[in-house]
Amino acid sequence: MNKQNSAVTSVGLRVATVMFQMGIDGLPRNYELVYEAYSGNNPELTKGFIAIGKHKTQKALDELGRKFLPHHHEESVAARTNERMRTEITSFIGLLEEEQSSLSDYSKIIDEASRSFSTDGEIDRETLSRSIQQLSMATERQASKSEALVAVAAEQAAALEEVKSDIDNFERMKFVDPLTGLANRRAFNKAVARVYSNPDLPMMCGLAFVEIDDFQRFNAKGAGDHAIRHVGQLFQGANREGEFIARLDGNRFAFLVNSAAEDEIMRVIDRMRAAAAMRPVIISDNGTGLGNATLSIGVAMSTIADNAARLMGFAEQALAASEKEGGDRATLFSRNAPASAGEQKGWMIYKA
């Protein structure tokens, strides 16, 4: 197992263990917060996590999350949007009040002109001329102001449409991995949490953690992201049943396969492995082939775990077993392994 794969597996296993030992609820935002704290990618977050102390309340975790993972606390996004909307609406109300005042002045001029036109007796040409001139000038001013109001109203309508687009885009992209177009870790955390939304009756499914073997080989050629995107696209093409697929981080993916049957779970896993091996990774700039991507996979069934943290922990252990055996295989963590498995009792190993 290369150092990068070992490090990722180690972090994932520690996260599941720490959450269980510290009694941290298996909420999606908690898993990502603990993962980031233990991965070492954000030293300040790690310091903040340690500073909370041994007993980490949900309130303290959320305060830390608001600072470092604001996407989990959508009220801050809503607050910013609300402030922008309030500014736009206040501005528009001001324009309407100005328009109302202008119309009132215009109405007075029209009223005065009307009185001069309807006066009985001899017509005062000078008064009539003055009234016509005032009415003409007032009409031009009002028309100009109305045009300006229409233009500003159009600008504000465009601004409000932009706000709506930003909100829609935020809702869409916060659960999408930008490199592959698959679901991201946040979406994965929510999906795993839903498995145990009813603790007494968890969803029947299998969780698979997946890593690209010998990923350093692709990184050394400057094709790490290309390999990840390539494998993600092959997974999408092979996902005929519409199972949940996410890219978590680095060269790691995850599947949630809806089935209570282990053999059905492994058939889906085998199809994904075959898809990854179907086409070699090719650097598009010069057409250089880097060979096929093989996968190490660890699978655990929801039926053998009573919460999301344990399910992920079992899948991590299965993944570690696959990598220890040299990769290019899938390991199922199962309570139904045959007695002949010897020292590997409790495991079923599927090889290519």
From TrEMBL:
Its EC number is 2.7.7.65. Residues 203-335 form the GGDEF domain. This is diguanylate cyclase. One of its GO terms (cellular component) is plasma membrane. SUPFAM superfamilies: Nucleotide cyclase. It is an enzyme of class 2 (transferase). PANTHER family: DIGUANYLATE CYCLASE DGCC-RELATED (PTHR45138:SF24), REGULATORY COMPONENTS OF SENSORY TRANSDUCTION SYSTEM (PTHR45138). PROSITE patterns: GGDEF. One of its GO terms (biological process) is cell adhesion involved in single-species biofilm formation. InterPro entries: Diguanylate_Cyclase, GGDEF_dom, Nucleotide_cyclase, Rev_trsase/Diguanyl_cyclase. One of its GO terms (molecular function) is diguanylate cyclase activity.
